[in-house]
Structures are given as structure tokens and as C-alpha cells.
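Human: We require from you a protein record containing the residue sequence and its fold in C-alpha cell form, and nothing else.

Assistant:
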Amino acid sequence: MKTAVVAAALACLAPGLGFAATLTGSNVVSSTPVTLSTVGTLDWARWPGYTHKGTAISNVTTTGTLKTYTSGPRLIDGDAGGMKVFGTAASFTFTVAATTVERTLTYYIAGWNSTGKVTVTLPGASTYTTTFSSSTTYSRVITLKFRADAPGTLRVTYSQTAGSGSINMQAAALSQSASSTKLTWAAPTLNSDGSALTDLAAFKEGEMEIRETTEEPVVSKTARVVEEVSIGKQANQRTETVSDTVRRTDVDVERTGAQPQRAARYTGAERRKNRGSYAGAERRAAL
């Protein structure tokens, strides 16, 4: 939070400095001779061969058929040579170190019977593009002014989009303005009410660590006994008196084919006394 406040304060005190990345460019027809050490005070690079002052400008990568030439339209350090690529989609690409201080890149290119396109990108800034075309030999100087919001990389691509000829390049030069705006600031010694200011820690740049916490609800279910039910079985005994009426059955037997005789009738007591078994003849005689 302190760093953000300090950054906001600096932006208010020095609106010319700014913190956003910027990238602008221009495309000029020119074949004026060049002295690289004069233009590239910070760094420069010369092709073919990648002769260079420092390391801020990288070597180039190419697509398409690559060739070198010795007699171009522009003298650089007294030499008119350079390199070229042929065919649609042929290209040159290199990178340049970018910082929060504004820098200027001057790019020396040429071509013949082709349409060329320069595309430049820088993180946080709008892409710069420029296109040019000629059926004969042409020579251009591309000037780029850029500043990054943090140390980064500028990427430059020169490509052939049409034509049966070629696109050419010779050199790139990098410079940085020697003048700069210096901010000075003295910590206040008094409060707004005139009392002595003793806590100066709030006016010092630093880092603050804030631990972020979150709350996560935990839901659970607990069984609780609210009532009890007892189930049992109880055995009971009881005595019951059952009464009934004893009945008697009399049977009359009648013989067929003879005078019927009434069957002997026995009482219950006589039956109990006479327990012998009778054969068929005895039974008939008894009748």
C-alpha cells in the first residue's frame, strides 16, 4: 500500500514522467550518409556480420532467401553494403532492450520492387506499423521513440508483403537522452497544526506484507435423543371353567326279511358293564 501511495504521489508531482509504456514512430524517405557512432550514443549494430557497440541491440533473424550487397543507396560509415531477403513473407527481426527511460531507435532500411512493412511491439504500448511500396529502389529511415513501464524488450520486424523484388537493411542505432528530471523531496518536520512530527516512518518507501484470510463455514449434523420409547411383553395367566351338556344317542337296528324286532336298548351303566366283543352271529342272537 505504501509503494502504491508513493507511486501516486510521484505521478502527481511529476506528470511528465508517467509510468505507462509508450511507443511512437515515423517513416522518412532518406538516403543521407550516416555515422553510426554519432547517432547511436548508447548502442549500434551494423549488417551484414553484426558489428555492434554493445548488447542492447540483438542480432537479426531472417526468413526467405538471404543475400548481401555492396552497392546500396545509402552510405553508412562510408560503406554502401547491406543485406536483403527475397519473396513474399521474407523478413528481418531483431530486439532492443527497453527501460523506463525514453530511448530512440533509428532503423536504416531499403528495398527494391516490393512492398515493405515495419511492425514494432512493446509490452503495455500500442503496436506501431508503417507500410511503403515502390517498383524501383527506395530508401527509408524509421525512427522509434519508446519507454517501457518496466524493463522489457522492443521487438522490430521488417517484412515483405508483396512484390517480386526484395527488402534490404543496413543498420540500427540506439540513443538515450542525457537530460533527466530529478525529483527531490524532504520529509516534513511539523504537523499541520504546528506540532513536531515524530513518526517519519510513514514517509519512507517500503514494503508491507498483508496476510489474506478467508472464512469457510463448516456444517455438520449431530443426533440428539429427545425421547425414549420402551417396548416389552408381559405374560398373564388366567383360569376359565368350561361347561357343556353330555348327550346320548340311541340307535335302532331293524332286520330285513323277518319280523322286525326292537333292538335291545342299554342304558349307560349296562354298556359299561358289558365290554365284551361280539361276533356277527352272537350279535344277531342277542337281537
Observations:
- The radius of gyration is 60 Å.
- The mean pLDDT is 81.
- Helices lie at 2-13, 36-39, 268-273, 280-286.
